[in-house]
## 1
Amino acid sequence: MLRLLRPSVSLFAALSTAAGALLHFRGEVGPALVASSAVFLLAAGASGLNQYQERELDAMMERTRHRPLPSGSMTPARALIISCALLASGLVLLIPAGGSSAVLLGVAAIVWYNGVYTFLKRRTAFAAVPGALVGALPPAIGWIAAGGSLFDGQLVLLCLFFYLWQIPHFWLLVLRYGEQYEAAGLPSLRRVFREGQLARLTLVWTVAAAASALLLPLAGLVRSPALSLPLGAVVLLIIMSGIGSYIRRVLPGAQSKAFRRINGFVLIVTLILALDGMLRHYHVLQRIP
């Protein structure tokens, strides 16, 4: 069951929702908590539905053949029912959290991930570029649940960061598992670019994601000096790590280490954003029973 729902991915989506809500916090904790819970359910349901859609592909790759459906530990019908129930529950929870705007974003996330991205993945090696838009929606849902505007410039920059980091995230997977994707008949960037070119492109996207994180304090999304310094340090580290991974790309395990580092980077930045939002409104939180 857990492998169907991928709780670590779903928890991160919920955390980025909470960060978006805390950065626009106006004294109401309830909607933010409900929105984060709703996004967790949506992410879990979308993961399950994606595995239902791609169960035949998953059976062809070593990386995914142990998932519940290709391994036979769960029937497709059961996986579909569980996934649809989670998606419906998540959308219902978004109604009190952020109203129609939040629900529309939730629907957009499902359609984009399970419709557009899943469709494009079989047809183009560049599916991750539009597909990464899904990762920018959870913080937007949290922002709206806290009373913010969808067209706020700060939110646009916040979503840009959550969009940019996913490209190197996906492309590092391609560098590591490209042969499996190709064996399953999926379009692969390894057939478009040489390995060195792909490594350079991944480095460019990594630096772009790091640079967008540096813009967060300038936009007022990170206001605490005590948190701005660690943010700058972690940005410097991920850039240096990206350069080091490019130089050592031929060594065994280099892509795996770079993948873990980019994931750790975005987790730390998300925690910094959430903590800054909490510190900013600490006096308000103290008065909440």
## 2
Amino acid sequence: MNTVTASQARAGLYRLIDQTAETHRPVVISGKRANAVLVSEEDWSAIQET
């Protein structure tokens, strides 16, 4: 799982979205107060079904 800062994610958001959708590898976005995980829509749908 890749990790990027919130600033890096903001600067390359479209590339990050495309990369996540193509590779199906989640990306951790680290912020000052909390972290988040970016997953592809397809993977998120699969998670929701379980």
## 3
Amino acid sequence: MAEFLPSFPGHHLEYELEHLSKITKQIESISSIAVLGGSKVSSKIDVIYNLLNRFDRILIGGAMANTFLAAKRVSIGKSLVEINSVKEANEILRVATDKIVLPIDVIVSSDEEPNEIMSLDVENIQKNQIIYDIGPKTRKNFFNEISKYKKLLWNGPLGFFEKKPFDNGTNFVSSVVSKTSPKNLYSVAGGGDTISALKNSKNFDRFSFISTGGGAFLEFISGRTLPCVEILNN
């Protein structure tokens, strides 16, 4: 309909585009970092490649980190992994190993003893164990990384946040962002699971901007032109 009748973006769409353009615009004088989580690498391949060209550092957690660890030939036990995306993850690590930061330790449980929870370095994961969250060393490492940058983009939880205590990693990293002065860190987050995880962490209102764009948010940060925006621009 927008192709045939005079059309204008609503205030909310304008606000979304303003903040998403600001966070993804590459400015050499402003250092930037991205935090990516969730379960699927396959749905974020274009996002990762686009962000590699615009961001100085990318922290990866959640189940998608398992696929990257598998690409590095790290045993991940019975953890969720996208076998068909291991080759692509390996290629991303090959071209951008200096920009990608992966977990160095994780919170695991075994299928035989699900209530027996422990922290292990990634090199020590056993065949019967399942990764549920990033570990304390990784949290500290992510904290140190975030403290170096002026812009932060977040998409995807860093662990199985729906079940305690596997929300600790996401909660900790979101608290790092929330405790950093807006003058020192411009922070944007988006995606359905991301919003749920941040609400769970009680740090939802502490980000500079939270996108409610859902799938359109991922499309935008992957560098694609949104059809509705293209029509309105024309």
